[in-house]
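Researcher: I'd like a candidate sequence for this fold, 522 residues long. If you have to choose between options at a position, lean toward the conservative one.
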């Protein structure tokens, strides 16, 4: 039996936007539990659940004020237990987000730290001002401005790589590491199957607080002007990751995937998922690319260590949806299906973001409805996080697309109604039903789920690679372009029914625009 942690498909649910069960306009845990049959029908192996913990919601759950309780907005711990039971009853694993790099400034740990009380004075990264009153160094926040905020009570600066309301924990402190391992143990004992680790390479910073050097060049965000040598990706983080892995290994078949933010995404991902560390790691190579070229796809694999198991996704809650990012303002449905077919043919663990199986384009959220602090700060050139977080459309003709009985926290995009679940269930050629076919094919073929990958030279815009496992050899060819294309192959091969348009004619693979073909070689 294939290990679900290597080659499985994990469905990401953003709780605020999946299904509202109590009519307050915000999705919740009971709403997710009520939709588990739908999730299971996709054929996925498990769920990644974005944060549902107690939080002031300044960054919508990524600012945690209690790691071991459910925010009342989403339900209760009993609701979580019911969701976990329901997932397991359907053969679904449940992986939960863990935000260890930072807490909310409302977390009791930070309240004690800023008051130098309770033995937690050194649990966060505090530093004195320079002689002129300025911050201790020139580190910057991803959300704009300095990464330091002055605390009037403590008379020191504290570090925050994100919002000022998200102070960074000091992972150079062994008491902090022990407390975080206790959090992990709490959820593992509750029965979760693993963790998605938010910004995992941000846990520790340079203890000497050295300035980052300049990168050079012109960038839209000040943060991108620095080479981040000292504010992230420190050796102390890897030591903690090894501690966490040892804890996970005490529980059968548990899993950890790390989110990597780096100028060297492939190298850093391999470092964090080396033996004895995380099971896998993902980065933003595909997630922030505007064009999915054959050379980009090939570069994601070639040169990686043989023992590195990658993870891939094309969309998530932080980036513009793939259908729009790669397909433009009016994405071609054929191109959207191609993206899905390509994703599910890749070597690695696959993450599928809610609504991606419907081919949802990026939603248009008017300025007066924006909620995301990053989007508001960088409007109109933001990552578009609100546009990727709008409600899941369940029913086309329902008042709020079946998501809620009242006006949702973000508006339902008009273009999403025609792509609602109830519409696509009735259409054999829909993105939803194509997704089911791709996942079913993946699970039936060990070469795709667990096999090696080797790229084959092909004329652009084709990308071709061979997946092999034991005696099974599959040649996968995808046409990334809007015009028909051909590729010469060996005589006597057999084309398999993968669900994308394409044909094997003698010694030629013929692919229409955005077509794809998987050929059995032996």
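Model: Candidate sequence:
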């Amino acid at each position: 039996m294939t290990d679900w942690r290597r080659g499985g498909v994990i469905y990401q649910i953003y709780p605020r936007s999946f299904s509202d069960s109590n009519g307050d306009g915000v999705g919740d845990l009971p709403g997710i539990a009520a939709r588990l049959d739908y999730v299971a029908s996709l054929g996925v192996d498990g769920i990644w659940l974005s944060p549902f913990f107690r939080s002031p919601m300044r960054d919508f759950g990524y600012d945690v004020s209690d790691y071991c309780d459910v925010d009342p907005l989403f339900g209760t711990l009993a609701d979580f237990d019911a969701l976990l039971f329901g997932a397991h009853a359907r053969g679904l694993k449940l992986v939960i987000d863990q935000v260890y790099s930072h807490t909310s400034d409302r977390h009791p740990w930070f309240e004690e730290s800023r008051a130098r009380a309770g033995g937690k004075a050194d649990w966060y990264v505090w530093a004195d001002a320079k002689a002129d009153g300025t911050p201790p160094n020139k580190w910057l926040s991803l959300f704009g401005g300095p990464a330091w905020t002055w605390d009037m009570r403590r008379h020191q600066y504290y570090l925050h790589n994100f919002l000022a309301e998200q102070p960074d924990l000091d992972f150079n402190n062994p008491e902090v590491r022990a407390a975080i391992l206790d959090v992990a143990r709490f959820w593992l004992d509750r029965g979760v199957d693993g963790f998605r680790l938010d910004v995992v390479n941000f846990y520790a910073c340079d203890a000497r607080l050295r300035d980052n050097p300049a990168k050079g060049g012109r960038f839209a965000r000040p943060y991108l002007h620095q080479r981040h040598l000292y504010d992230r990706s420190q050796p102390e983080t890897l030591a903690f990751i090894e501690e966490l892995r040892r804890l996970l290994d005490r529980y059968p078949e548990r899993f950890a995937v790390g989110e990597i933010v780096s100028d060297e995404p492939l190298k850093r991902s391999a470092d964090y998922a080396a033996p004895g560390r995380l099971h896998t790691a993902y980065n933003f190579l595909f997630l922030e690319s505007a064009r999915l070229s054959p050379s980009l796809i090939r570069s994601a694999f070639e040169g990686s260590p043989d023992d590195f198991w990658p993870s891939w996704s094309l969309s998530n809650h932080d980036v513009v949806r793939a259908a729009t990012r790669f397909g433009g303002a009016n994405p071609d449905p054929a191109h959207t299906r191609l993206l899905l077919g390509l994703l599910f043919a890749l070597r690695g663990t696959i993450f599928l973001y809610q609504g991606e199986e419907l081919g949802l384009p990026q939603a248009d959220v008017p300025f007066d409805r924006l909620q995301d602090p990053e989007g508001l700060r960088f409007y109109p050139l933001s990552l578009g996080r609100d546009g990727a977080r709008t409600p899941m459309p369940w029913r086309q003709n329902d008042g709020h697309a079946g998501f809620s009985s009242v006006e949702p926290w973000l508006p339902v995009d008009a273009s999403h109604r025609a792509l609602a679940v109830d519409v696509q269930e009735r259409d054999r050629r829909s993105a939803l039903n194509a997704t089911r076919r791709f996942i079913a094919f993946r699970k039936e073929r060990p070469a795709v789920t667990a096999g090696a990958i080797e790229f084959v030279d092909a004329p652009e815009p084709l990308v071709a690679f061979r997946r092999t496992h034991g005696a099974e050899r599959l040649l996968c060819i995808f046409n990334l372009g809007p015009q028909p294309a051909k590729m010469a192959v060996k005589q006597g091969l057999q084309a398999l029914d993968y669900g994308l348009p394409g044909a094997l004619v003698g010694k030629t693979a013929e692919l229409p625009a955005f077509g794809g073909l998987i050929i059995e070689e032996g």
